Amino acid sequence: MDLKTVYLGLELPTPLVVSASPLSQQLDNIKRMEDAGAPAVVMYSLFEEQIVREQHELDHHLFFGTDSFPEALTYFPEPDELLTSGETYLDDIRRAKEAVDIPIIGSLNGSTLGGWTDFASQIQEAGADALELNLYHIETDMEKTSTDVEQMYLDIVTAVKRVVKIPVAVKLSPFFTNMAHMAKQLDVAGANGLVLFNRFYQPDIDLEKLEVVPRVILSSEHELRLPLRWIAILDGRIKASLTATTGVHAAPDVIKLLMAGADVTMMASALLKYGIDHIRHVEKDLRLWMEKHEYHSVQLMQGSMSQIKSADPGAFERAQYVRAVSTLPKDYKIF
Amino acid sequence: MPQQRFRTLDANEAVADVAYKLNEVIAIYPITPASAMGEWADAWASAGQPNLWGTVPSVIEMQSEGGAAGAVHGSLQVGSLTTTFTASQGLLLMIPNMYKIAGELTPTVFHIAARSLAAQALSIFGDHSDVMAARNTGWALLASNSVQEAHDFALIAHAATLAVRIPFLHFFDGFRTSHEINKIEMLPDKVLHALMNDDLIAEHRARALSPDHPFIRGTAQNPDVYFQARESVNPYYNACLDIVQDAMDRFAKQTGRQYHLFDYVGAPDAESVIVLMGSSAETVHETVEYLANHGKKVGAIKIRLYRPFDIRRFIEALPATVRNIAVMDRTKEPGAAGEPLYLDVINSIYENIDRFDRMPRVVGGRYGLSSKEFTPAMVKGIFDNLAADQPKNHFTVGINDDVTHTSIDFDPDFTTEPDNVVRAVFYGLGSDGTVGANKNSIKLIGENTPFHAQGYFVLDSKKSGSVTVSHLRFGPNPIRSTYLIEKANFLGIHQHLFLERYDMTQYLEPGGTLLLNTFYEPHEVWDQLPRIVQEDIINKNLKLYVINAYQVARDAGMGGRINTVMQVCFFAISGVLPRDEAIEEIRKSIRKTYGKKGDRIVQMNMNAVEATLDHLYEVEVPDTVTSPIELQVAAPAGAPDFYKEVQMMMIQREGDRLPVSALPVDGTYPSGTTQWEKRNLAQEIPVWDPEICIQCGKCAFVCPHAVIRIKAYEPAALEGAPQTFLSVPARDRNWQGLNYTIQVAPEDCTGCGICVDICPAKNKAETGRKAINMEPQPPIRHQEAVNWDFFLTLPELDRTQVNVSSIRQQQVQQPLFEFSGACSGCGETPYIKLATQLFGDRMVVANATGCSSIYGGNLPTTPWSYDAEGRGPAWANSLFEDNAEFGLGMRIALDKQLQQAQELLKKLSGDINSELVDAILNNPQKDEADIQDQRDNVRQLKSRLEALNTPQAKQLLSLSENFVKRSLWIIGGDGWAYDIGYGGLDHVLASGRNVNILVLDTEVYSNTGGQSSKATPLGAVAKFAAGGKPTNKKDLGLIAMTYGNVYVAQVAMGARDEQTLRAFLEAEAYDGPSLIIAYSHCIAHGIDMQTAMQNQKAAADSGQWLLYRYHPEREDGNPLKLDSRKPKMPVEDYMMMENRYKMLTKSKPAAAKQFMQDAQEFVDQRWSMYEYLASRDGTNGKGE
Predict the structure, then answer these.
(1) B159 with B175, same domain?
(2) Which of A19, A148, B182, B427 could form a disulfide with A268 if both were Cys (CB 3.0 to 4.6 A apart)?
(3) Which of B584-598, B887-901, B1021-1035, B1153-1167 shows the lowest per-residue confidence on average (mean pLDDT)?
(4) Is B32 a catalytic residue?
(5) Statement to judge: residues B569 and B467 lie in one domain
(6) Which pTM value belongs to this model?
(7) Count of domains for chain B
């Protein structure tokens, strides 16, 4: 049974990569992921915005109230050195690289073009085997056009590719007018992989407190469909590796995505829900399924049901909606 | 790294630098103005910096200066090189050990930032009262006059003490020297090595206690030998003089700086000589040089070694021509024949009477107490006095003593400031970074040019909205001017609003430069200047530059911090350095200063630098004065005369002009004076929206400055209300028919916004707004001030009509603690205010020194107030260490007075209505109705006693007010309760007496800048715990509970306000000792003060802070009631909300992670223990 695959040029023993999540903040967890069979780990994201905010916060608190009252010219001892520019993240990458043999993929969310490139270089220097650009950005400026936004993403990818040698994947949201066109542009810009899709934390309203609250909801397997569609559509049309990072919970999800054309699949919510050892179960089930259905390798199934190779290419497009609705149970009400 | 030859730094750092290198054990305790020495030592040790011999000194914080002295004594006894740092009351606490250390001939040096002692009042500022109080201990006293000397003498003292075995007090003037920044030449390690004799260190060790060659030290002696033994040390004192001079000579060989035990300066044929020590000797030096250069026969002796006093060398130092001597003491010894130095000089001359052809005339004078200015003009005045036929003796200088007429006159216009010195004065706000920028400028010039540089900073006693004044001098020669700049050639006014408050341009000399930060455009600013400023600018031909630094700073992302902008302006205009060179140095300095805080912080400052010059304009000055704007100097209508005539002067920064007669003789000041000082600090103030309000009272409950007030009143009282006055029907069912108003004191609010954060009522149509919202103050200031005045005329609700156990009702009670000088958003003051609302009209308060005594008792105005009947808290501060005992003393006396009154009442019962006697003696005084009855009873009694007019009746009359229950409160911070005052606190708890102890637990020594106390939680970064507090917080409440008969509550109003209220009521009602430990968020926690109540809640939700009440007489069995719910939030989540914990994740991430794990473990274990304790059956608190 051959589960080997290639993602971002990295040869991996299985397609069960761990995607970015708080789990990778602990080195022990990364070791456990390796032990459980993860072929690679995407580290939690370094958010430039957070680093900047923390710099301002620290600067504010070390300054606030100083040199005002004669008995208390300051309120804190000021250390000679402060790790305020993402050093802890880079340290985590270094320590992870020392602790495990599997590839470590850095994850970066910049807020300025300079931040994207600076941190990308530093992540590379820290030893990351690849870099995932976490394009997590909610555009609210009414004056900005969709072209502006797309161009901003392309500029980032181009700039980062210019400064790093390691492979670069791009983790995207699905909210593009023409996802296919966007994917193609990213491919041309040099992205080595597309990670589909980013899940934005959606705000919620606390009805008792009348407050807007961030609500973290782990992905469910139903969310698999969206990346599944786009991987199937894109497979064979672009050079970049493809992977899904939403809704992968069990072996059937993995198999579907591989068949749609994914090079690897990524799990995070399932591990948060069931524990890191869940990787073992998924791998075991994957092997069982392949054995039962006589697939001797992952390569055999990869892309076997992509839009290009599928018997019904139109099924991945708009017509699918009509069919989907028509298959609903009879007592299901549509408003 | 090579040592830097020249540095610009203050004496605290300069001294600590040497002391740290020359010691192995350092015992520390915070006290102003010496705290920074300990802070440096702790920071260096925490960073692993080695001393001269390659080992990192052990730095240990003690619980008091007494403890520090004891630890030093012990360390010395076993042979380590040991030191400590202190001042003032701290030195007094060391005195017992100092006698021992000297008596045992043990070498050590204590470094003292000399400071006033608390007498009629505490003062943090500098004079020699403390070191003079220690002059009998047998220690050598070595005085430094400047930052350079403080650095040098630290070494000389350490070298000499080892040689002579006598311990040394090395002292320098608090603030004037300890905090003055000056350019000095640093002592390289090779000089330290050259002065420190390793053989002497070995001898010190050889004399140490060791079981390998045992002896005993510290015997008790009898009349037969004590006296002789006391005389046995004489040879050491005799030898000390030469040994110190030898150390000075050896030092000179190494550095070229030659000192003597007495240094004479001035004309060789001087006839008039001033003798003194300390920083003012430099001002005298400067003046004497000036006068001698102008042909005057004057001189001065700077005393270096004051004890032992070398009479021979002193006489030799005097010029043979001397005819008149003025001895200046920076201390006061009431009732003495003269001040100490004066008597020493008199004695020296008397003992050498044969050496003089004609006995010089010697007069003594006092000067400079509590950092009172001492200027060349005063020095000239002293020489003028000496030149008189009958010089005034025992005189004072620098004040106007119109009572006993001790003061001498001087010409205030006399000046010795040289022309080649740039003198710049800057007025800033505490929060705007002015002082920091100026410190930076001094370093920049001092360390990058051949210029000498000096900086001294006058800060405010208020903790919010403070005004800072920076005095900077730059020049080609060493700067000896240890006095404030009176004639500046550059004046920076960094806040436009100061223009209407203070006359600042008076300090600019003709042709000088004025730099103003203003909101106004260059073409419109002239019309916005007050008349006297326009006059000064025209008459003195001043240059005027303006910049809108607020805008530049804001655009650069720096908010209200205008430091970098104004620094660039100063260098661009002043010409101290070539402009481009200066700006490049500023850029370098920004990288150095902010680099570790992150590239964005550096960039933000760089952006400000780049933008500044484009926004700096010189204003063309018109020929005529046009402004109708006058200085705001009028006192508010209704203010009492004392406020208008005395306190207003202090507020206007004219307090130096108050004569002796203006001041109370015994430190007694009127209550409730903050109400007259309208500080107008807030840019935004809360505005009430009655339509949304649910009248819960929480906004007023948490308001730190008592500016949010609530009244419920009869609608008829609204007659004459201003049009904009808001009033709605009261919602409380007990107040049907009453109207209700929440009114903000617009000119007293500090704008913290805590009220808005706590408000639970949201506007349903616009959820971003609440029932109280922050709005810009200026547009509504006048209107709301009128409303506030009207609000004050509304009657207070009868206290018997208030259900005090419900916050919504209780909050109508009038706070009798208002508008304090506490930080904006203070976490302590709401608790104090609550106590005054509940019990203030019969409250007696003993207040420990600390934040609460400063915002509660620091002049010019004080917040403890009174009600319409004239009743209010009676407040006093004794010391830091003795507050529990101080309060217990009050309790004992009040109880005794009550007992005496009861005895007399019984004796006189035949002459007084027996029903009245019974009513007085049997009134339980459990609630407000009882209290009011008792007041009526006492009123009747007094009337009857006045009529009786017998000796016993008169006696009872003087005691009769004690029949109304006195509520005794002992208030202080955690530094007092957990550390320095703990012994006393424990004793008071054990006394069983009816006292209420309120511990305002900020978990650090807040007032002295956030040093660790035993209340500091595990892992919190604090000064003296720079690497995170390594041990758990002491559980004071649990310790108190072990007595069984102490009421103990731990509260956090931001977590559960009703529990806080209940605890205060129960504690006060309990007839025995009560202890309330109140979580008080603090600026030293590194939090957003506006949302600080959320931090309190998180502390409780995570179990980091437990809420409970332990009532020894609880009726339902177990005295312990745990008011906290089971922790639901990880401790780490709470810790990451506060910079005191979070910053360690940026400096020592591994240690921070471990602390957070350990903190969780500790919290879990403590929760289990408390849960168990609270769940036990039992009726007596002992689980039996």
Answers:
(1) yes
(2) A19
(3) B584-598
(4) yes
(5) yes
(6) 0.94
(7) 6
Q: Does A213 touch chain B (CB under 8 A)?
A: no
> Chain B residue with minimal CA distance to A210?
B767
Q: Which of B254, B274, B297 is the last residue of a domain?
A: B254
Cβ of B598 and A52 within 8 Å?
Answer: yes
Task: Compute CA B725 distance to the chain's CA centroid, rounded to the nearest angstrom.
Answer: 39
Whether residue B578 lies inside any domain: the answer is yes
Token pair of B407 as six digits = 């003061």
Nearby residues of B351 by Cβ (< 8 Å), 6 or more positions away: B311
How far apart CA B526 and CA B512 sit, in angstroms, is: 17
Asked whether residue B922 is assigned to any structural domain, the reply reads yes
Picking from A58, A75, A88, the nearest residue to B1009 by CB comes out as: A75
Looking at residue B650, its pLDDT comes to 94
* Chain B residues touching residue A84 (CB < 8 angstroms): 596-598, 1146
Task: Indicate if B286 and B429 belong to the same structural domain.
Answer: no
**Distance, in angstroms, between B1139 CA and closest chain A CA?**
7
Nearest residue in chain B measured CA to CA from A71: B1008
The CATH number that applies at residue B306 is: 3.40.50.920
Which residue, among B35, B601, B603, B757, would best test binding to A if mutated, counting the most A CBs under 10 Å from its CB? Answer: B601
B996 catalytic per annotation: no
Same domain as B108, residue B28: yes
Residue type, A30: I
The H or E element spanning position B776 is strand B772-776
Q: How far apart are CA B148 and CA B306, in angstroms?
A: 19
Residue entry with tokens 């934040």: B851
B386/B522 same-domain check: no
Provide the token pair at A175: 């909210």
* B600 assigned to active site: no
Residues of B in contact with A74 (CB under 8 A): 1009-1010
Strand B772-776 versus strand B684-688 pairing type: antiparallel
Residues of A in contact with B179 (CB under 8 A): 70
Determine the Cα–Cα distance for residues B1080 and B850; give it in Å rounded to an integer: 14
Are residue B945 and residue B1007 in the same domain, yes or no? no
Domain of residue B1075: give its range.
967-1175
Pairing of strands B82-86, B109-114: parallel
Asked if A84 and B598 come within 8 Å (Cβ–Cβ), the reply is: yes
Instruction: Encode pLDDT of B499-511 as tens digits.
Output: 988 999 999 999 9
Specify whether B227 is located in the same domain as B280: no
Asked if the Cβ–Cβ distance from B175 to A54 is below 8 Å, we say: no
Q: What mean pLDDT value characterizes chain B?
A: 96
Q: Is A79 on the interface with B (CB under 8 A)?
A: yes
Q: Is residue B855 part of a domain?
A: no
User: From the list B430, B461, B1010, which residue is nearest A75 (CB)?
Assistant: B1010
Tell me how far apart the alpha carbons of residues B194 and B251 are, in angstroms, rounded to a whole number.
8
CATH 3.20.20.70 holds for A5-307: yes
At B341-371, the pLDDT tens digits run: 999 999 999 999 999 988 999 999 999 999 9
Which residue, B137, B250, B133, is CA-closest to B197? Answer: B250
Q: Has residue B1081 been placed in a domain?
A: yes
* C-alpha closest to that of B1111 among B1147, B1076, B1150: B1076
8 Å CB contact between B1096 and B1105 = yes
> Are B464 and B575 members of one domain?
yes
Separation between Cα atoms, residue B675 and residue B209, nearest integer Å: 61
Top pLDDT among A199 and B36 is at B36
CB contacts of A92 in chain B (<8 Å) are: none
**Cβ distance A168 to A191 under 8 Å?**
yes
CB-based contact A71 B1026, cutoff 8 Å? no
B65 is catalytic: yes
Give the closest of B175, B457, B1083 to A75, CB-based: B1083
Listed by start position, the domains of chain A span 5-307
Whether chain B has a CB inside 8 Å of the CB on A66: the answer is yes
Which of B223, B254, B285 represents a domain boundary (last residue)? B254
